[in-house]
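Review form for a predicted model. The reviewer records the input and the model, then writes brief findings.
Reviewer: anonymous (R2)
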Amino acid sequence: MTDDQALGILVVLGDSRRFEIFQRLLDTAGLSSGELSDGKAASSTSHHLKMMQRVGLIRSVRRGKKICHVVCKETLAEFAKWAREAAENATFAHLTDILENSETR
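Model under review:
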């Protein structure tokens, strides 16, 4: 996963409503747009779902007459790997800074 792809995911999940929808899909796979709306405007929910689809977080699956949404586990695994590597790199960079600063003393 590239930094730009990870940034796209972070931006999408930075919205509290999209994050809430994403958490619900993690808990219960295969919910329809109507089930995810919670009394809010269907067009708003649809917009949030499309944004999550664009960055690959979710995909739509037809089940009979209903279109359901599920988390794309592959993308989530790639994002987790990216985050882990970014954290490790940040840690190594911090250690390098400490070592370099201690050498100058």
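Findings: The first helix runs from residue 3 to 13.
Further findings: The radius of gyration is 19 Å.
Recommendation: see findings above.
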